[in-house]
Specification:
With 416 residues, the chain is an alpha/beta fold. Helix content is 44%, strand content 13%. A 5-stranded mixed β-sheet has the order 2-1-3-11-6. Strands 7, 8, 9, 10 and 12 form a 5-stranded mixed β-sheet that branches. Strands 4-5 form a two-stranded antiparallel sheet. The radius of gyration is 26 Å and the shape is globular. The termini are far apart.
Length: 416
């Protein structure tokens, strides 16, 4: 032990001597704390997130952030493997539905409340933080809110002398005028049209699709209303079959409307706008304007969580706070993920005059509607959506009666 102390002392004298001689200082190499960050997104999201990480590292030179990212395709499958094997990133972008899947008892992610010394949770409304609470543990923080929204190509509707649709019958009436030219007044992915059909059925039936415990609240006859509605949309050429939806058809006006998430507004409608079309955010389709929003649901667009296995909770929390509340991240991200829920981030965007565009307009429509409910993650279950399309196609192709198809779908949902 004495020889080690002498060695350390000798090293100190050498360093001091070097500093006094040629004014160059010899220092031991600082060890950096390395943490990991993962997310999914397009090239634009990747670029601004990487730029933000660089800014964070400049502010905290003792922290190194290693990034893992890709497009959505395949990301969820890889995340599943990493969560099961406890190799997930320290800080990660997650889906709202993953809380139920990976943390049903609240222990699947780190309790962010324990990191409040490093994260300004006061920037978030308590009601919004509730979306990330599981069994008393703050598992995740929502970045922005999201809901399926109706976007209308006003230029095309004006061409046919039509007003922006508000009711279900408005879109059927539009199809009668547009379809001879091969134009669809509405469109959407399988998930979007599934949720669209739920909204229609809930309004017509006057009851929710699911009970509070997430169990099915619809009878076979109720489900038949959904299938029949979807088949009518297809048969009357309101929209193409959901599995044949082609996003590029929005760009040239072949699709004069689209149902999509707020967070996808720019990516879905941006090119069409660049091509000279005027797009507007419509009210949520209903039987009457007074019912607009009924049967529609909102959820966190995306969320950030911290790994329960992190070896560096402090540094992870510092990065999380930067991603949610800093001016650097707010300005780089803009409204790409929706209007931020963080009051700090929102203030930065206001100061920079960045609260504008389709996503901002869609967010205002959502925030101004008191009838929108909270989305149950079960509604986004891929296998159920696939089964809805499958059973609907049986009716479309005369392979089953409406009642038989509805019974099959209900039996499948109950067995899930």
């Amino acid at each position: 032990m004495r020889s080690l102390c002498l060695t350390a002392a000798a090293l100190s004298i050498m360093i001091l001597a070097a500093g006094c001689g040629d004014h160059s200082v010899v220092t031991a190499k600082n060890e950096k704390t390395e943490i990991t960050l993962s997310w999914w997104g397009n090239d634009g999201r990747n670029e601004y997130t990487l730029a933000a990480v660089e800014e964070f590292e400049k502010l905290h030179p003792d922290i190194k952030v290693t990034c893992s990212y890709s497009e959505w395709s395949g990301f969820e499958a890889r995340t599943r493997i990493r969560m099961i094997s406890d190799t997930e990133s320290d800080v990660m972008q997650i889906n709202f539905g993953w809380l139920d899947e990976y943390s049903p008892d609240g222990t699947g992610y780190y309790d962010i409340n324990k990191l409040s010394e490093y994260i300004d949770l006061s920037a978030f409304d308590e009601n919004m933080l509730e979306y990330g609470m599981v069994s008393g543990s703050l598992n995740a923080i929502p970045i922005a809110m999201n809901t399926q929204t109706v976007y209308i190509n006003k230029t095309v509707y004006n061409k046919y002398g039509l007003d922006i649709p508000q009711t279900w019958e408005d879109i059927f009436a539009a199809a009668k005028v547009m379809s001879p030219d091969g134009v669809f007044p509405m469109s959407g992915t399988e998930k979007s049209i599934w949720i669209y059909s739920i909204a229609y059925a809930e309004q017509q039936l006057g009851k929710p699709f699911l009970k509070e415990d997430s169990s099915l609240n619809f009878t076979t006859e109720d489900i038949a209303v959904m299938i029949d509605f979807y088949c009518r949309l297809v048969n009357e050429k309101v929209l193409p079959q959901a599995e044949f939806y082609e996003r590029l058809n929005i760009n040239d006006g072949t699709y004069a409307g689209v149902v999509a998430w707020i967070s996808d507004a720019e990516s879905y409608c941006g090119t069409a706008i660049e091509n000279g079309f005027e797009y507007v955010v419509a009210d949520y389709t209903a039987f009457s304007p007074a019912e607009s929003g009924s049967g529609w649901y909102a959820k966190p667009a995306t969320m950030y969580a911290v790994s329960k296995n992190t070896q560096h909770p402090k540094e992870s929390a510092m990065l999380l706070d930067f991603l949610l509340n800093s001016k650097e991240m707010a300005v780089l991200q803009g409204t790409e993920k929706g209007i931020p829920l963080s009051s700090s981030a929102k203030k930065h965007l206001e100061e920079e005059g960045m609260l504008s565009g389709m996503q901002y307009e869609a967010s205002l429509v959502m925030e101004g509607n008191d009838l929108i409910g909270q989305l149950d993650p079960y509604i986004e279950t891929t296998s159920v959506i696939d089964k809805f399309i499958e059973t609907s196609n049986l009716v479309l192709y005369d392979k089953a009666t409406l009642d038989d198809a509805a019974a099959r779908l209900r039996e499948y949902i109950i067995s899930e």
